[in-house]
Amino acid sequence: MAFTMSDQASTAGKVITCKAAIAYELNSPLSFEDIHVAPPGPTEVRIQVTHAAVCQSDLYYLKGKDRNLLFPRILGHEGAGIVESVGSAITDLKPGDKVIPVWQAECQKCPRCRSGRSSNICDVFLEHFESGVMRSDRTSRFSRVADGKPIFHFCCTSVFSQYTVLDEACVAKINSSADLSKVCLLGCGVSTGIGSAWNIAKVTPNSSVAVFGLGTIGLAVVEGAKIAGASRIIGIDRLESKFEKGKDFGLTDTLNTSTIEKPIEAHIYEMTKGGVDFSFDCTGNPDIISAAMQCCRPDGGVAVIIGLVDSRKLVSFHPSSLLLGKSWTSGLFGGFKARTQLPGLVEKCMDGVINLDHYVTHTMPFSDINKAIQLLDAGECLRCIMDLTTASVP
User: Domain Alcohol dehydrogenase-like C-terminal: where (predicted)?
Assistant: First the structure.
Protein backbone atom coordinates (compact mmCIF):
# COMPACT_ATOMS: atom_id res chain seq x y z
CA MET A 1 0.00 0.00 0.00
CA ALA A 2 2.90 2.35 -0.71
CA PHE A 3 1.77 5.84 -1.80
CA THR A 4 2.98 7.14 -5.14
CA MET A 5 2.47 10.48 -6.83
CA SER A 6 0.04 8.90 -9.27
CA ASP A 7 -2.13 7.86 -6.32
CA GLN A 8 -2.58 11.44 -5.15
CA ALA A 9 -5.02 12.41 -7.87
CA SER A 10 -7.25 9.48 -7.03
CA THR A 11 -7.24 9.95 -3.22
CA ALA A 12 -7.10 13.72 -2.67
CA GLY A 13 -10.38 15.01 -1.28
CA LYS A 14 -11.71 11.52 -0.68
CA VAL A 15 -12.06 9.25 2.34
CA ILE A 16 -9.27 6.66 2.54
CA THR A 17 -9.79 3.19 3.98
CA CYS A 18 -6.71 1.73 5.66
CA LYS A 19 -5.47 -0.36 8.58
CA ALA A 20 -5.01 1.04 12.08
CA ALA A 21 -4.31 -0.25 15.57
CA ILE A 22 -7.03 0.99 17.92
CA ALA A 23 -6.93 1.19 21.71
CA TYR A 24 -10.38 0.47 23.16
CA GLU A 25 -9.49 0.19 26.84
CA LEU A 26 -6.60 0.30 29.30
CA ASN A 27 -4.12 -2.57 29.56
CA SER A 28 -5.52 -4.47 26.58
CA PRO A 29 -4.08 -5.42 23.18
CA LEU A 30 -4.70 -2.98 20.35
CA SER A 31 -7.35 -3.97 17.81
CA PHE A 32 -5.99 -4.16 14.26
CA GLU A 33 -8.79 -3.23 11.88
CA ASP A 34 -10.01 -1.12 8.96
CA ILE A 35 -10.78 2.56 9.52
CA HIS A 36 -11.85 5.52 7.42
CA VAL A 37 -9.57 8.57 7.28
CA ALA A 38 -11.30 11.78 6.15
CA PRO A 39 -9.64 14.39 3.91
CA PRO A 40 -7.72 17.18 5.64
CA GLY A 41 -9.34 20.48 6.53
CA PRO A 42 -7.96 23.78 5.17
CA THR A 43 -5.06 23.98 7.67
CA GLU A 44 -4.42 20.23 7.85
CA VAL A 45 -2.23 17.65 6.16
CA ARG A 46 -3.01 14.00 5.43
CA ILE A 47 0.04 11.76 5.30
CA GLN A 48 0.78 8.14 4.60
CA VAL A 49 2.66 6.82 7.62
CA THR A 50 5.41 4.60 6.24
CA HIS A 51 7.20 3.68 9.48
CA ALA A 52 6.47 3.93 13.19
CA ALA A 53 7.82 2.75 16.53
CA VAL A 54 6.31 2.16 19.95
CA CYS A 55 7.55 4.53 22.65
CA GLN A 56 7.34 4.22 26.43
CA SER A 57 4.99 7.22 26.37
CA ASP A 58 2.45 5.11 24.45
CA LEU A 59 2.64 2.54 27.25
CA TYR A 60 2.33 5.30 29.85
CA TYR A 61 -1.07 6.27 28.47
CA LEU A 62 -2.15 2.72 27.66
CA LYS A 63 -1.53 1.72 31.29
CA GLY A 64 -3.64 4.57 32.62
CA LYS A 65 -0.82 6.58 34.22
CA ASP A 66 -2.46 9.72 32.83
CA ARG A 67 -6.09 10.47 33.70
CA ASN A 68 -7.04 11.98 30.35
CA LEU A 69 -6.96 9.11 27.87
CA LEU A 70 -10.10 8.91 25.75
CA PHE A 71 -11.33 5.74 24.01
CA PRO A 72 -11.40 4.47 21.37
CA ARG A 73 -8.13 6.05 20.30
CA ILE A 74 -5.33 5.55 17.78
CA LEU A 75 -2.06 5.85 19.66
CA GLY A 76 1.44 6.37 18.30
CA HIS A 77 3.55 9.51 18.14
CA GLU A 78 6.90 8.30 16.79
CA GLY A 79 6.79 7.91 13.03
CA ALA A 80 7.53 9.29 9.58
CA GLY A 81 5.76 9.40 6.26
CA ILE A 82 4.85 11.08 3.00
CA VAL A 83 2.34 13.85 2.39
CA GLU A 84 -0.70 12.47 0.52
CA SER A 85 -2.77 15.67 0.34
CA VAL A 86 -2.96 19.10 1.93
CA GLY A 87 -5.70 21.51 2.93
CA SER A 88 -6.56 24.56 0.84
CA ALA A 89 -4.69 26.97 3.16
CA ILE A 90 -1.41 25.00 3.18
CA THR A 91 1.35 26.64 1.13
CA ASP A 92 4.62 25.13 2.40
CA LEU A 93 3.84 21.42 1.95
CA LYS A 94 2.83 19.42 -1.11
CA PRO A 95 2.00 15.78 -1.94
CA GLY A 96 5.14 13.65 -1.99
CA ASP A 97 7.04 15.62 0.67
CA LYS A 98 8.75 13.53 3.32
CA VAL A 99 7.72 14.56 6.83
CA ILE A 100 7.93 13.69 10.51
CA PRO A 101 4.68 14.04 12.51
CA VAL A 102 5.44 16.08 15.65
CA TRP A 103 3.41 15.95 18.84
CA GLN A 104 5.36 18.97 20.12
CA ALA A 105 3.49 21.42 17.90
CA GLU A 106 5.07 24.58 16.54
CA CYS A 107 2.55 26.82 14.80
CA GLN A 108 5.15 29.60 14.23
CA LYS A 109 2.33 32.15 14.61
CA CYS A 110 1.23 32.29 18.27
CA PRO A 111 2.80 34.68 20.82
CA ARG A 112 4.85 31.87 22.34
CA CYS A 113 6.31 30.77 19.00
CA ARG A 114 7.07 34.38 18.02
CA SER A 115 8.43 35.51 21.37
CA GLY A 116 12.06 34.77 20.52
CA ARG A 117 12.55 32.87 23.77
CA SER A 118 14.26 29.51 23.75
CA SER A 119 11.14 27.67 24.99
CA ASN A 120 9.51 25.28 22.53
CA ILE A 121 6.03 25.55 24.02
CA CYS A 122 3.32 26.57 21.53
CA ASP A 123 -0.31 27.60 22.03
CA VAL A 124 -1.45 24.84 19.66
CA PHE A 125 0.36 22.27 21.80
CA LEU A 126 -1.19 23.53 25.04
CA GLU A 127 -4.73 23.68 23.64
CA HIS A 128 -4.75 20.66 21.35
CA PHE A 129 -2.42 18.00 22.76
CA GLU A 130 -4.92 16.06 24.86
CA SER A 131 -8.15 16.97 23.09
CA GLY A 132 -8.36 13.90 20.83
CA VAL A 133 -9.86 15.99 18.02
CA MET A 134 -8.66 18.44 15.37
CA ARG A 135 -8.43 22.05 16.52
CA SER A 136 -10.10 23.48 13.40
CA ASP A 137 -13.57 22.07 14.07
CA ARG A 138 -13.22 19.92 17.22
CA THR A 139 -14.02 16.69 15.36
CA SER A 140 -12.02 13.57 14.49
CA ARG A 141 -10.76 12.58 11.05
CA PHE A 142 -10.90 8.89 11.99
CA SER A 143 -13.96 6.64 12.04
CA ARG A 144 -14.72 2.94 12.22
CA VAL A 145 -15.62 1.24 8.95
CA ALA A 146 -18.03 -1.06 10.73
CA ASP A 147 -20.40 1.60 12.15
CA GLY A 148 -19.01 5.05 11.32
CA LYS A 149 -18.34 5.93 14.96
CA PRO A 150 -15.48 8.41 15.50
CA ILE A 151 -12.08 7.40 16.88
CA PHE A 152 -10.05 9.91 18.90
CA HIS A 153 -6.66 11.24 17.84
CA PHE A 154 -3.63 10.95 20.15
CA CYS A 155 -0.84 13.46 20.82
CA CYS A 156 -1.79 15.37 17.63
CA THR A 157 -0.23 12.55 15.58
CA SER A 158 -1.79 9.02 15.78
CA VAL A 159 0.85 7.25 13.71
CA PHE A 160 -0.48 3.75 14.46
CA SER A 161 -2.52 4.15 11.30
CA GLN A 162 -1.46 3.80 7.69
CA TYR A 163 -2.89 7.27 7.07
CA THR A 164 -3.33 10.09 9.56
CA VAL A 165 -4.39 13.74 9.50
CA LEU A 166 -2.35 16.39 11.27
CA ASP A 167 -2.64 20.08 11.98
CA GLU A 168 -0.03 22.00 9.97
CA ALA A 169 1.66 22.90 13.27
CA CYS A 170 2.44 19.22 13.76
CA VAL A 171 4.28 18.47 10.51
CA ALA A 172 8.04 18.89 10.02
CA LYS A 173 9.20 18.76 6.40
CA ILE A 174 12.55 16.99 6.01
CA ASN A 175 15.20 16.16 3.42
CA SER A 176 13.71 14.28 0.46
CA SER A 177 16.63 11.82 0.64
CA ALA A 178 16.07 10.89 4.29
CA ASP A 179 15.50 7.23 5.14
CA LEU A 180 12.05 7.21 6.74
CA SER A 181 12.70 3.82 8.36
CA LYS A 182 15.38 5.52 10.47
CA VAL A 183 14.35 9.14 10.96
CA CYS A 184 10.97 8.04 12.30
CA LEU A 185 12.87 7.65 15.59
CA LEU A 186 13.30 11.41 15.77
CA GLY A 187 9.58 11.80 16.44
CA CYS A 188 10.14 11.40 20.18
CA GLY A 189 12.68 9.32 22.09
CA VAL A 190 15.98 10.03 20.37
CA SER A 191 15.27 13.74 19.94
CA THR A 192 14.12 14.03 23.55
CA GLY A 193 17.28 12.43 24.91
CA ILE A 194 19.80 14.20 22.71
CA GLY A 195 18.03 17.53 23.07
CA SER A 196 17.90 17.20 26.85
CA ALA A 197 21.70 17.01 26.83
CA TRP A 198 22.20 19.79 24.27
CA ASN A 199 19.36 22.25 24.79
CA ILE A 200 18.06 21.81 28.34
CA ALA A 201 21.10 20.85 30.43
CA LYS A 202 23.61 22.28 27.93
CA VAL A 203 26.25 19.64 28.73
CA THR A 204 29.75 21.13 28.51
CA PRO A 205 33.09 19.66 27.37
CA ASN A 206 35.05 17.68 29.98
CA SER A 207 32.05 17.49 32.31
CA SER A 208 30.68 14.55 34.30
CA VAL A 209 27.22 13.15 33.63
CA ALA A 210 24.95 10.61 35.34
CA VAL A 211 22.11 9.01 33.38
CA PHE A 212 19.44 7.08 35.30
CA GLY A 213 17.61 4.54 33.12
CA LEU A 214 19.17 3.18 29.95
CA GLY A 215 16.23 2.83 27.62
CA THR A 216 16.10 4.68 24.32
CA ILE A 217 15.84 8.15 25.89
CA GLY A 218 18.60 7.43 28.39
CA LEU A 219 20.94 6.13 25.71
CA ALA A 220 20.12 9.15 23.56
CA VAL A 221 21.16 11.35 26.51
CA VAL A 222 24.41 9.36 26.65
CA GLU A 223 25.00 9.90 22.93
CA GLY A 224 24.15 13.60 23.21
CA ALA A 225 26.50 14.03 26.17
CA LYS A 226 29.30 12.25 24.33
CA ILE A 227 28.85 14.45 21.24
CA ALA A 228 28.87 17.51 23.54
CA GLY A 229 32.27 16.45 24.88
CA ALA A 230 31.50 15.07 28.35
CA SER A 231 34.52 13.18 29.69
CA ARG A 232 32.75 10.94 32.20
CA ILE A 233 29.31 9.45 31.59
CA ILE A 234 27.89 7.16 34.28
CA GLY A 235 24.99 4.88 33.34
CA ILE A 236 22.69 3.72 36.14
CA ASP A 237 20.21 0.88 35.72
CA ARG A 238 19.03 -2.27 37.48
CA LEU A 239 19.50 -4.56 34.48
CA GLU A 240 23.07 -5.71 33.84
CA SER A 241 22.19 -6.51 30.23
CA LYS A 242 21.88 -2.81 29.38
CA PHE A 243 25.43 -1.83 30.19
CA GLU A 244 27.29 -3.36 27.25
CA LYS A 245 24.90 -1.65 24.85
CA GLY A 246 25.37 1.59 26.76
CA LYS A 247 29.14 1.47 26.26
CA ASP A 248 28.55 1.55 22.51
CA PHE A 249 26.73 4.86 23.01
CA GLY A 250 29.47 6.40 25.15
CA LEU A 251 29.20 5.21 28.76
CA THR A 252 32.48 5.33 30.68
CA ASP A 253 31.12 3.93 33.97
CA THR A 254 28.17 1.76 34.97
CA LEU A 255 26.29 1.24 38.22
CA ASN A 256 23.80 -1.56 38.85
CA THR A 257 21.33 -0.37 41.48
CA SER A 258 20.37 -3.94 42.35
CA THR A 259 23.90 -4.64 43.67
CA ILE A 260 24.64 -1.41 45.57
CA GLU A 261 23.73 -1.38 49.26
CA LYS A 262 24.11 2.33 50.04
CA PRO A 263 21.87 4.98 48.45
CA ILE A 264 22.85 5.43 44.82
CA GLU A 265 23.22 9.19 45.20
CA ALA A 266 25.74 8.70 48.02
CA HIS A 267 27.66 6.18 45.92
CA ILE A 268 27.88 8.58 42.96
CA TYR A 269 28.80 11.49 45.23
CA GLU A 270 31.74 9.48 46.59
CA MET A 271 32.97 8.09 43.28
CA THR A 272 32.95 11.56 41.69
CA LYS A 273 34.34 13.31 44.79
CA GLY A 274 31.54 15.81 45.12
CA GLY A 275 28.83 14.96 42.61
CA VAL A 276 28.34 15.09 38.85
CA ASP A 277 27.97 18.24 36.78
CA PHE A 278 24.81 16.99 35.07
CA SER A 279 22.26 14.29 35.90
CA PHE A 280 19.26 13.00 33.97
CA ASP A 281 16.33 10.96 35.22
CA CYS A 282 14.87 8.90 32.38
CA THR A 283 12.73 6.61 34.55
CA GLY A 284 9.83 8.66 35.89
CA ASN A 285 10.30 6.97 39.29
CA PRO A 286 9.91 9.61 42.05
CA ASP A 287 12.61 8.01 44.25
CA ILE A 288 15.09 7.93 41.38
CA ILE A 289 14.22 11.49 40.36
CA SER A 290 15.18 12.55 43.88
CA ALA A 291 18.41 10.53 43.77
CA ALA A 292 19.34 12.05 40.42
CA MET A 293 18.90 15.53 41.84
CA GLN A 294 20.91 14.75 44.95
CA CYS A 295 23.87 13.25 43.08
CA CYS A 296 24.57 16.55 41.30
CA ARG A 297 27.24 18.78 42.78
CA PRO A 298 25.60 21.42 44.96
CA ASP A 299 27.40 24.41 43.42
CA GLY A 300 26.06 24.67 39.90
CA GLY A 301 25.07 21.09 39.12
CA VAL A 302 22.14 20.66 36.73
CA ALA A 303 19.55 17.89 37.25
CA VAL A 304 17.07 17.22 34.44
CA ILE A 305 13.78 15.30 34.75
CA ILE A 306 12.86 13.53 31.50
CA GLY A 307 10.88 10.42 32.48
CA LEU A 308 7.09 10.65 32.63
CA VAL A 309 5.84 10.45 36.21
CA ASP A 310 2.57 8.76 37.09
CA SER A 311 0.07 11.64 37.45
CA ARG A 312 -0.99 10.26 40.85
CA LYS A 313 2.53 10.55 42.36
CA LEU A 314 4.58 13.47 43.67
CA VAL A 315 8.25 14.24 44.18
CA SER A 316 9.36 16.31 47.20
CA PHE A 317 12.63 18.00 48.13
CA HIS A 318 13.97 20.62 50.53
CA PRO A 319 14.69 24.02 48.96
CA SER A 320 18.08 24.16 50.66
CA SER A 321 19.26 21.63 48.07
CA LEU A 322 19.34 24.48 45.55
CA LEU A 323 20.81 27.28 47.68
CA LEU A 324 24.35 26.99 46.34
CA GLY A 325 23.26 27.23 42.74
CA LYS A 326 22.15 23.75 41.78
CA SER A 327 19.41 23.73 39.11
CA TRP A 328 16.54 21.27 38.82
CA THR A 329 14.81 21.51 35.49
CA SER A 330 12.89 19.70 32.79
CA GLY A 331 11.48 20.21 29.32
CA LEU A 332 9.57 18.60 26.47
CA PHE A 333 10.98 17.08 23.30
CA GLY A 334 14.52 17.90 24.35
CA GLY A 335 13.83 21.60 23.99
CA PHE A 336 13.74 21.33 20.19
CA LYS A 337 11.38 23.54 18.19
CA ALA A 338 10.02 20.71 16.10
CA ARG A 339 9.27 22.24 12.70
CA THR A 340 12.23 24.60 12.83
CA GLN A 341 14.93 22.29 14.21
CA LEU A 342 13.98 18.71 13.30
CA PRO A 343 15.09 19.15 9.68
CA GLY A 344 18.58 20.04 10.95
CA LEU A 345 18.59 17.06 13.28
CA VAL A 346 17.75 14.83 10.30
CA GLU A 347 20.77 16.29 8.52
CA LYS A 348 23.01 15.40 11.46
CA CYS A 349 21.77 11.83 11.24
CA MET A 350 22.38 11.71 7.50
CA ASP A 351 25.90 13.12 8.06
CA GLY A 352 26.70 10.44 10.66
CA VAL A 353 26.90 12.75 13.68
CA ILE A 354 24.01 10.84 15.26
CA ASN A 355 23.80 7.07 14.75
CA LEU A 356 20.17 5.97 14.54
CA ASP A 357 21.03 2.38 13.62
CA HIS A 358 22.09 1.37 17.13
CA TYR A 359 18.68 2.25 18.59
CA VAL A 360 16.93 -0.30 16.35
CA THR A 361 16.81 -3.74 17.95
CA HIS A 362 13.82 -5.18 16.07
CA THR A 363 11.90 -4.69 12.83
CA MET A 364 8.49 -6.17 12.05
CA PRO A 365 5.31 -5.60 10.05
CA PHE A 366 2.62 -3.28 11.35
CA SER A 367 0.29 -6.21 11.98
CA ASP A 368 2.65 -7.36 14.77
CA ILE A 369 2.24 -4.15 16.76
CA ASN A 370 1.07 -5.94 19.91
CA LYS A 371 4.26 -8.00 19.85
CA ALA A 372 6.25 -4.76 19.61
CA ILE A 373 4.40 -3.41 22.66
CA GLN A 374 5.14 -6.58 24.63
CA LEU A 375 8.84 -6.44 23.78
CA LEU A 376 9.15 -2.82 24.90
CA ASP A 377 7.13 -3.37 28.05
CA ALA A 378 9.35 -6.32 29.01
CA GLY A 379 12.51 -4.28 28.46
CA GLU A 380 13.60 -6.59 25.65
CA CYS A 381 14.02 -3.94 22.97
CA LEU A 382 15.00 -0.32 22.47
CA ARG A 383 13.06 0.46 19.34
CA CYS A 384 11.09 -1.82 17.06
CA ILE A 385 10.57 -0.27 13.64
CA MET A 386 7.26 -1.24 12.02
CA ASP A 387 6.69 -0.99 8.28
CA LEU A 388 3.17 0.35 7.68
CA THR A 389 3.26 0.32 3.89
CA THR A 390 2.01 -3.26 3.75
CA ALA A 391 -0.34 -4.71 6.31
CA SER A 392 -2.95 -7.41 6.69
CA VAL A 393 -5.19 -8.47 9.52
CA PRO A 394 -3.24 -10.97 11.67
Answer: 217-339
